Amino acid sequence: MIQRGIATFSLDYGRCPRWLFERMVKLGRNILEIIIKEYSPEEFVKRIADPVWFQSLGTVLAFDWNSSGLTTILTAALKEAIRGKEKEFGIFICGGKGRTSRKTPDEIKNWADILSLPSYQVNNLVYNSRMSAKVDSCLVQDGFQIYHHSFFFTKKGNWSVVQQGMNTVNQTARRYHWYSENIKDLVCEPHSGIITQIKVPTLNLVAKESESNRKISTELVKGNFSSLLKDIEILRKHSDELSKTLSFRLGGRQFTFLSLENKEFCTHPVLEEDFSKNFYLKKILYKLCEEKPSNYEELLSKEGVGPKTIRALSLVSEVIYGAKPSYQDPARYSFAHGGKDRIPYPVDRKTYDSTIDFFTRIVSKMKLGYYEKNKIILRLVKR
Prior knowledge:
By secondary structure, the chain is α+β, with helices and mostly antiparallel strands. It is built from 15 helices and nine strands. It folds into two domains: 6-199 and 331-382, no CATH class; 208-319, no CATH class.
């Protein structure tokens, strides 16, 4: 399976017909029963974290393959499919779209009470749900606003996250997948799987290449608040005055030199940042300097820390201390299995055949007529 990534689709403002949603719930329940019986709840949670597999499941259940609605409708259908059977299936789905996404922690806690889960496991599930949303909002600054968050977990503590953001400017949506077993570090390359149609300029602070930037950002808030404010003031002053290069002398010697010409940007982000209205930013930075988080993950987890705080620390780390972050979009591929014309890359036959083979075996065991089973397989192959 593909190991990292993000998925991008056109925004869909329509509504799913009731007949289609009911069909998706029915087929989804059938597929879930077979997967759990043949494999395990943990296997389902693992597979849902793979965007290729997730996309294929949506196709099997008859939803549009290239619509942003696939994410929201598919997760809602799966949540409805297991309603009343959660304990029997051993799978629990929390959250959803819009306001429902904000109920995720409470839903996790409610299931924890019913299942009598130990407090450390409950806290871990809630923390990972919250941090996955915060990472994709603050550390992957790609212009997509998170509006959907679904959290899948099992009694053993395995979990996956499927969340989606929208960009109203280019009318696209982007889906982010996480899987607990793949994650070694929540703030460094935490995603699993990828499908995307476009790439955009991105402040990518989860990239391995951004490690020094994350490290210096942490050191900045471990230090003196007044010194940090002086660094912010340097950025504010020069972002107003300069357009192509920045060169600073600190302590009587040249400290760093930065070219602001970037093929991926018309202007470097520091030139577009507004540091004038920064009362709230100062308040958060003061709080961080007082609390002195021990690492970058702890820094990010602090209440009040958002994209602007992270961006300010990243720009100080880059412009003044020379720790350049990655500006590469973490998206890697453009379609589920590549294109027959080798654009944007040749078909990944192994992944393609593996996905089709898995769903063919699952569909063959479903309680459906021959014609209906054949129709589902043909729809999957065509996509």
